[in-house]
Structures are given as C-alpha cells and as structure tokens.
Amino acid sequence: MRSLTKTNAFIDGHWVPVDERFEVTNPATGEVLAEVADADATLAERAVEAANRALPAWRARPAHERADLLLKWYDAMQANKQALAELMCAEQGKPVAEAAAEIDYGASFVKWFAGEAERSYGDIVPLQTTDKRVSIVKRGIGVCSAITPWNFPNAMITRKVAPALAAGCTMVVKPPQLTPLSALAIAQLASEVGIPDGVLNIVPSSDSKSVGKVLTEHPLIRKFSFTGSTEVGKQLMQQCASNVKKVSFELGGNAPFIVFDDADLDHAVEQLMICKFRNAGQTCISANRILVQENVLDSFVNKLKAAMRDLKVAAGTADEVDYGPLINTAAIEKVERLVGDARENGAECLLGGEVLNDLGELFYAPTLLTDVTSSMAITQEEIFGPVVAVQSFTDEEEGIRKANDTPFGLAGYFCAQDYRRIERVSAALECGMLGINAGAISHAYNAFGGVKESGIGREGSRYGLAEYQETKTLTLGGFA
Ligand SMILES: O=CCCC(=O)O
Predict the structure, then answer these.
(1) Residue 177: inside a domain
(2) Domain range holding 103?
(3) In whole angstroms, what is the distance from residue 147 CA to residue 160 CA?
(4) Top EC class per UniProt (predicted)?
(5) Which CATH number does the domain housing residue 47 bear?
(6) Nearest C-alpha neighbor of 467 from the set 251, 150, 249
(7) Same domain, residue pair 52 and 140
(8) How far is the CA of 285 from the centre of ligand 1 (A)?
C-alpha cells in the first residue's frame, strides 16, 4: 500500500517546504508521526494569490469538465481508502473501520457536488415590460477560504471544497493543526487526477490567529467557511465583516436526545449508542443531553447500561474496536471537569467516570451519569467525549422546553411512536437537523447546518452549492 504522507504546504500545485515545522502525534501512542510545514501569514497570502490566478480559467471551464475532474478525485479517494483511513486513524485516533467510513462519507460529497455542478440553473423571469428580457444567473463567487476541524479530518474538507470547486471557485484551506495529514493526502490525490494548479491550496499552520486573519480578511477572498466552536466562529465572523464576505459557519451544538414514553426503548438505546459513541463522542451532532420521560427512565437506563458495558475501547488499529483515544490532554481534562462537576452536584455515575490508564492517557471509559440537572455544566457545554448524561422530564411540554433551553440549535433527536406527537415535537424543537427514531442523520444528500448560535448556512444537499455561488440579475433592454 502506498504512503500518502505529505508534510509540506500545497500551494499552486507545488509542495512548498517551510523551515518552521510543527509535530503531529498519534493520540493512541504519543508517537510523533510527522513534522509538518508551519505556514505563516505570508505563505497564506501566497496561497490566496495562487487561488486568484487559477480562478479565471477554472471558472470558465464547462461544468461537465469540472464535474469529470471531481469524479476522478472521488475515484482516487476510493482507490486509496485504506491508506487514507490508516493515516486518519494514526493522527486522529478513530478506529480504522470508522476512518474508512469517513473516507466514504468525505468522498460522497465530491461525487454529489460533481453531479450538482451539472445541475446548476438560473431563471428566466416572466416578462415585465415588452422592451426588456430579464434572467437570473448563478456563478461561482470567486476565491474561497476555509478553516476545518480535527474531528472529521477528511469529510469537513470535502464538504466545503467539493461545492466550491463544482461552482467554479478556487480554494485555500487551513486544516487543523492536530490532523493536517489527511488534508495534505487528499491534496496529493487532487493534483494526481489533474485538478489544475492553484485551484486547491492547503496551508497547514500552528498559527491559527495570523493565518486565520488572512483567510477572513484578505480582499481577494469572497467567501469564508468555518467548522468549529461558536466562540471562535463569532470572532471569525467579525473579521469577515471587514469586507463583507459571504460566510458559512457550522458551529457548536448541544444536541438533546429525547426519549418519550411511547418510544420503542430497545430501538432508542440502539440509536443513542450509534449517535453518542461515533468518534468517541467527539462530534458536533453528538447527543449531549439525554432527556428521558420519568415513567420509562429506569427501564431505559438499564437497557442503556447493558449496551454500554459491551463497548470495546482500544487503539483504533485494534480489531472490532468501538472507539479509541480522545484527541489530546485538553479533551480529557474537559471531560474530567464536566463529569467531576456533575458528580459533585449530585449526579450518580453508574458506569465509567475515569481515564483508562492501562490503555494510555487519552482513553476515557464509557461513562453513564444519571440524576443530571440543567444547572450542571455538562448540560451547558459540548461534552465531546464518551459520556452519556441522563436527565428526566415529566411530560411532553417539559421535555420540549428542556430540549430548547440552550443558545445552540445544531442537531436534535427524539424517539416516539405516536404520529401526532412526532408531528408536534418535530415542529417545536429548535434545531437545523432532527433525527426522529434515528441517531445517524448525516449524508451528502442532506442539508447540514444549525440555527441559533450553531451557525449560518448549509453544507451538503442541493443547498450546499448555493453557498459558493452568487446570483446576478441581467436586464436586457432595447426590444421593440
Ligand atoms: O462534527 C461535525 C460533522 C459531523 C457529521 O458530518 O456528521
């Protein structure tokens, strides 16, 4: 199997070495995997200029040519799935099988937007006066930039880059400092399949502030996309305001997972396990607050505890592992703080509640807390770890009120069977995405994004392309 480990910045189709380097480590073992080029603001500006030079020719190509190149990129990701998955497991920690599923997921955005490139239409507007013809056209907005997170090192890049390229835009990406190797590997594949120089540029950096400033304030950039925390997102949004860039932000979540008393409890447990333990809980749409109706609480918790006991935690390279290490010490400290605070304030820990030191410093036990209340920090912050924090509620009205009692609104989930309740609760929950008797809701065909402080804009789906387009109205006069 070939190695796809690249360690330099990728600008204008070239691998650019930089004297300054930062280390990328394996969270399962602490081993240093690579020393990666540490781009500064000047190099980021070079990447923006390269993207700007590449723009006219890329934008001018017929849609089917851009689509064909994207499909070749998709094929290359599929052909190299195992190598990409092993690289991702090494730098991010998720099990190899889950990493391979992420390659499928990430590549699916490339395939989907290759198709959308060929289905982007404008409008012919009805006649307003006999002397004019009006049409509305769509075109790629121009040079785009993105800052992406470490929890999905492949898919969070393709979900932004694929629609941008499909729309005829060029792109500069700053991948996360913790997981740049997956990004650099797919840039290599993009180059091999013939995506022209300068169309995709990758600037790894440990200096998020100054590179981020270039990617949000550079006047040549017309659109910025970010996935990460709400706190950082707010700062970046302000920076983008300096020259009124188009933006999309996929920010923090605090997803409720509500189990009503008419739910199929076995199915609810199964769906919660899928939702919660994906990527060890380090997912922005992970269920964060588990709200269970009082009269089914004991039964649900017993079933959940039995399912959680079967979880296998180990390095992502082990066989049949459910989840691996958390990403770094800060992640472990946060989980320990939240669990500690909950316990001090009266939560009961039925399972776990500790670091699995036999495995290593970053492995956290599957943890089940009950008697959780809304005043505990664990219900206010994203846990981003393998901790299930269960609260109870009395009736539908209280369940909905508790679920909506947050400034966030990314994903939400509920389990119920009564179709009238399903209709009522679906309408009442404040979130951009809702899983109803379903814990897995992500797909390239779906519109991903949040409401309230969880963000702006949508990724994936037919709406994802529009984020990288501008709309122009043409009024043609002079008809008799
Ligand atoms: O964590 C953010 C993205 C997760 C997903 O696309 O399902």
Answers:
(1) yes
(2) 9-251+454-475
(3) 10
(4) oxidoreductase
(5) 3.40.605.10
(6) 249
(7) yes
(8) 6
Cβ of 284 closer than 6 Å to ligand 1, yes or no, is yes
Q: Do 269 and 222 share a structural domain? A: no
Long-range contacts of 434-437 (CB under 8 A, 24+ apart): 435/271, 435/275, 435/411, 437/263, 437/264, 437/267, 437/268, 437/271
pLDDT one-digit tens code per residue, 90-144: 999 999 999 999 999 999 999 999 999 999 999 999 999 999 999 999 999 999 9
Task: From 92, 156, 157, give the residue whose CB has the most ligand 1 atoms within 8 Å, as the site to mutate.
Answer: 156
Q: Is the same domain home to 381 and 420?
A: yes
Residue nearest to atom 6 of ligand 1 (CA): 442
The active-site residue out of 91, 250, 430, 459 is 250
Ligand 1 close to Cβ of residue 365 (< 6 A): no
Q: 87 and 151, same structural domain?
A: yes
Q: How far is the CA of 117 from the centre of ligand 1 (A)?
A: 23
| Rounded CA separation 189/74 (Å) | 9
Q: What is the mean pLDDT of residues 309-315?
A: 98
Domain count, the chain: 2
Q: Whose CA is nearest to atom 7 of ligand 1?
A: 442
Would you say residue 85 lies in a domain?
yes
- Residue 387 φ/ψ, nearest 5 degrees: -120, 125
Backbone angles phi and psi of 157, in degrees to 5? -85, -50
Whether residue 291 lies inside any domain: the answer is: yes
* Active site (annotated) includes residue 250: yes
pLDDT at 338: 98
pTM attached to this predicted model: 0.98
pLDDT in tens, 176-217: 999 999 999 999 999 999 999 999 999 999 999 999 999 999
**Judgement on whether residues 58 and 16 belong to the same structural domain of the protein:** yes
Give the number of residues written for the chain: 480
